[in-house]
Amino acid sequence: MCDAGRLASPRRLDTDLVAKAQRVAAQAHDLPELRMAQAVPLPGLAKLTLEQTAAVLGVGRATVARLQTRFRHPGERPPACPRSALGGGRRRALLSRAQEPAFMADWQAAAERGEWGVLPPLRAALDRQLGRRVKPSVVYGLVQRHRWRKVAPDTRQPQADPPGPREWKKTLPENLAAVLTAAAVPDRPIRLRFQAEARFGRMARRCRCWAPAPLRPTVRKGYEREFPDVYGAGARRGTPPR
Fold first, then answer.
1. Counts for the chain of helices (H) and strands (E), in that order
2. Domains of the chain from N-terminus onward
3. Surface-to-core class of residue 178, CB atoms within 10 Å of its CB (0-12 exposed, 13-18 middle, 19+ buried)
4. Per-residue pLDDT reduced to its tens digit, 10-22
C-alpha cells in the first residue's frame, strides 16, 4: 500500500522508443501512421498529459493509449483487451446490424398498412427473440435508430365518404343552373336553404403512437351508441320567403 504523503514516481522515458517514433513520423505516408508515431514522443518530450496529447492529435484520450500500445507492438493485438483494442463499435449491442432491420421489418410493414404503433408488443417480441427482459430505454433507442417518432394519428369518421362532399361542393353551381331554369321558376325569387345535422355524444381521446417517418397511422374516431341528434336549417339573410 502506497504512502499518501508520497507522490507517484514519474514515468520513465524510453529514449530508443522516442527516437524510433520520430523517425517513423518523419517518413509517415498517411494520417493514421503519423498520429500513431506522434502519440509516443509528445507525452515524453513535451511533458503532455494524455488529455493534452489527445487534443493535439484530435482524438480521444483512450485512443492515445491504444496508439502507443500499437506502436510498441506493431502487428499484434494486445492480449489484455482483445475486444476493445481497436475502439468504437457496437460493444453492448443486443442485435447485430443485420438482425435489427430483419426484426423491424414486420413492424415496418404494419406501420405502412396504417396500423396503430405501440411499444409494449414490440418490447415483448424483442424479449422473446433475445430470451431476456430488456429495459424500455432499449426499445426507445431501437425505434429511434430506425427513424420512428411519436405522432398523433389522423382520424376519420367510420361512415365518412371524403370524395363525396368534395365533388358535391365542386358541382353545386352547375347542378343549380341545370335545375333552376327560367321555365321551372319563372319570375320567382329563389331561396337557397341548407340543412345539417349534428350528433352529440362521447368521443374517445386520441393518443399518440409510434410510426416510422414519414408515415402517420389513420385510426377511427370514437363512436358511441348513446347520443342525441340535432337538426337545423338555414337560409341567406335578407332573402324574402316564398
1. 9, 6
2. 15-72 (1.10.10), 94-183+190-242 (no CATH)
3. exposed
4. 556 678 888 888 8
